[in-house]
Amino acid sequence: MSDGRISRLRVTFTVILAIIFAVLPLPEPINAARPDLLLLLVIYWSLSAPRIAGLLFAWFCGLSIDVLKGIILGQHALAFLVVAYFTHKFQLRIRIFPLSQQTLTVFAFLALYQFIVFWLDGIIGQPVTTWMRWLPVISGAILWPILVAGLDTWNRRNR
Amino acid sequence: MVTLSSDSRNIIGRGPPLGAGLFFLGIVSVGMMMLDHRSNYLETVRQWLGAAASPVYAVVQTPGQAWDWLTGSFADRGRLRTENSELSEQLREARVKLLQFDSLREENVRLRAVREASAGVGGRTMIAEIMRVDVDPFRHRVRINKGADDGVFKNQPVLDAFGIVGQVVQVDKYTSTIILISDAEHAIPVQVNRNGIRSIAVGAGDLGKLSLPYMTVESDVKVEDLLVSSGLDGIFPAGYPVARVSKVERNPADTFALVEAKPLAQLDRDREVLLLWDDTPQVEAPGAKPKPATESKPAAEASTAPTPPAQATSGQPAPAAQAPAPTPGAQPLPQPQPPTED
After folding, report:
1. Residue B142 C-alpha from the chain's centroid
2. Which of A13, A44, A87, A65 is nearest to B133 (CA)?
3. What are the residue ranges in chain B where pLDDT is below 70?
């Protein structure tokens, strides 16, 4: 059954969890590799429910990261927006990719996201140049298949 | 593969085209960044957005706070006793030191009056707790649980019991972010306590290390020298301990010596920090020459950024104003100007 409202509730719920995960204190060794769960969710919902999760949705998700962790407003919002744009643009193609190929695409998206954030960091004059800042790209790509499996199961069961 | 929910986009799309959305929101983001970075137009917006985020912080912090409460309420008697005896020991020592403090302060104020410098040590403080939330793993920033509602202002100095911790970089309504002195973006003007040589301590992105890149090879600095804030930036009041020199390497061929120092504040262990309102207007020590070329960003902002909070006016009068009348020969004290209200 297609009930838009339930699905919207589900999106909101996962987004709130991801926002909490973004500021949750993690132990030191894995803290640097904290995956950008919120961005993965934005990609996932943009692929599976593009009507609900549009560009504005992605932009607001990015803005929440700006408020919680950013240096200036709009930085992560812009990065989220660009990733969401490409996801929507190639949505019909990415959706039918096999999981391995999908993971590679997500890897590229995450790298693009980190690059935009890095680039804007450089423009405002406070770059973080350690290689560790690219770790979330890898951890995010590893998390993607798990996330897709979990959310797909949940979506199918509750539909 | 991603499950397709039934409400996927039509092949021939409705609604605004993607490109237009990207363009519009992109312009909004860029405009926002420019406004936020170049000027302070978005301060209020930020404060309210930060306030909207406080439920998230509350949720994230709850487990830690519950654990603290549990361990606190079920602390065993033995530990409390030892803690108690330790604390009373410390109190006794502090009392003895305080006995001399009053007379020393009088003398200090008198001497400063003679020197026409009113850089006094003192001011109103408030304890803030470091929140258990992650800010950015690659930057030395922490969030504290006091914000604009408590009178916190941008560039406010933050201390702990051992020395200077950092300064406030961003104020929300109920919380604020502080940058630690060890952040690679931070610099603080310091002075060697032993002989008054001025320099700048730059964060090295390492909690246990500050570097002093502008110490010449000839300058008289030794390992174990205490570095105190010099107050030249107008942000940090003068005379607070910052770091202890841990390494000096002189290569005669170079212009500058390689000097490193270890911060005195317990940057990695603090749970609570002190916010400081410095109620005395900063007057530069005679002969003090600011070094604009060497000051990096946070220090350079000092001249324009800080606006004293409204509450600062309610504090006690400046120490210099309480000074006994200066010796007849001395010139009148510089009048402490009241902080401007905005």
Report:
1. 11
2. A65
3. 1-16, 113-123, 279-342
| pLDDT value for B156 | 92
CA atoms of B235 and B282, how far apart (whole Å): 9
Spell out the domain ranges in chain B: 191-230+242-262
Per-residue tokens: B181:
């002195």
pLDDT at residue number B305:
39
Per the CB < 8 Å rule, is B18 touching A89?
yes
Three state DSSP letters for chain A: CCCHHHHHHHHHHHHHHHHHHHHCCCCHHHHCCCCCHHHHHHHHHHHHCCCCCCHHHHHHHHHHHHHHHCCCCCHHHHHHHHHHHHHHHCHHHHHCCCHHHHHHHHHHHHHHHHHHHHHHHHHCCCCCCCHHHHHHHHHHHHHHHHHHHHHHHHHHHHC
Q: Does B31 touch chain A (CB under 8 A)?
A: yes
pLDDT, mean over chain B: 76
Phi-psi region of B205 (alpha: psi -120 to 50; beta: other; left: phi over 0): left
**d(Cα B268, Cα B249) in Å, to the nearest integer?**
27
For A156, B2, B77, the CA distances from A1, given in Å and listed in that order, are: 11, 18, 61
**Is the model's pLDDT at A77 over the cut of 90?**
yes
Residues of A in contact with B60 (CB under 8 A): 20, 23-25
The strand pair at B164-171 and B157-159 is best described as antiparallel
- CA dist A83 → A5, A9, A42, A54, A131 (Å): 25, 23, 9, 11, 22
State residue B185's pLDDT score.
86
Q: Quick one: tokens of A118? A: 């890095």
Chain B contact present for A139, CB below 8 A: no
Which of the four pLDDT bands, split at 50, 70 and 90, describes residue A158? low
What tens digit of pLDDT does each residue of A123-156 get? 887 777 788 889 999 999 999 999 999 988 888 7
